[in-house]
Amino acid sequence: MATILTEPLTTRYAALQAERERSWPAAQLEANARQRRLLTERFDPAAIAQRGDILPDFAFPEVDGEELTLDGLTEGGSALFIFFRFAGCPACNIALPYYAEALWPELRQRNIPLVALSPQRPDRLREIKTRHGLPFFVATDSDNQLARHIGIAFEPDDRPTPPPAGWIGEVTGTGAWELPQPAILHVRADRSIQALTVSPDWLDRPEAQDILRTIG
User: Fold this and answer.
1) 89 pLDDT more than 60
2) Domain-wise residue ranges, the chain
3) What is the pLDDT of residue 183?
4) Dihedral Cα 67, 69, 74, 78, nearest 10 deg
């Protein structure tokens, strides 16, 4: 296993939270913490897809124009998927560059494709790949098809009617509140699930070393 020299993800998220505590109004801080707390309390490991479950051959439009499929991605042995919310998500803009630094080099050596998946439309999603120069695939999980299938899709508790300007469905281009909970999915060559790690609290995502440990 390659030596991880980059700043841990937990440290990066601690800095983000500290900045929010300095700059956000108390009500906004509480709403953010409450949603993360509720998702964590409701999370049921038995309700998500399990190791050994076989997935359909889903397809994903990559932001650079390529059409990815599960069969194509796993033909060399296995593939790893990182679910994130959308290109403008602050926590995602910390996680994906971190995984590019600390996770991708080892996966590349093992010839394991890495795909970052969001329900956001490809034309809007390309921004995050370009901004950080991400060296792996960034693709759209259209209509949260895979996220729903493995049981990680959710809708925020606070859904005003009518939706305000700049709401999630407008940002993603989906017209829906639904988002995936951050998750790491390792799929084997037969499209079976090797491991699924879900982060109901989006500021508590796995370190690269932990992900590499789960895929062996």
Assistant:
1) yes
2) 9-215
3) 98
4) 100
Q: Residue 30 pLDDT more than 50?
A: yes
Work out the angle at residue 172's Cα, subtended by the Cα atoms of residues 7 and 133, and round it to the nearest 5 degrees.
Answer: 40
At 121 the pLDDT is 97
Q: Which CATH superfamily is domain 9-215 in?
A: Glutaredoxin (3.40.30.10)
Alpha-carbon span 198 to 204, nearest angstrom? 10
Helix 26-42 to helix 9-23 angle (10° resolution) is: 140
Q: Nearest 5 degrees, angle CA 205-CA 98-CA 32?
A: 45
| Confidence check: pLDDT of 3 > 80 | no
Q: What b-and-e string marks burial along 42-79, b requiring 16 or more CB atoms within 10 Å of the CB?
A: ebeeeebbeeeeebeebebbbbeeeebebeebbeeebb
Element (H, E) at 78: strand 78-83
The tokens of 163 are what? Answer: 């939706």
Q: How confident is the model at residue 6, as a pLDDT?
A: 80
CB 82 within 8 A of CB 115: yes
The two three-digit tokens of residue 198, written as one number? 């879900």
pLDDT of residue 114: 98
The number of residues in the chain equals: 216
* Among 86, 80, 123, CA closest to 100: 80
The residue with tokens 């999630």 is 168
User: What distance in Å separates the CA atoms of residue 113 and residue 133, rounded to the nearest whole number?
Assistant: 16
- In angstroms, the CA 105 to CA 2 distance is 8
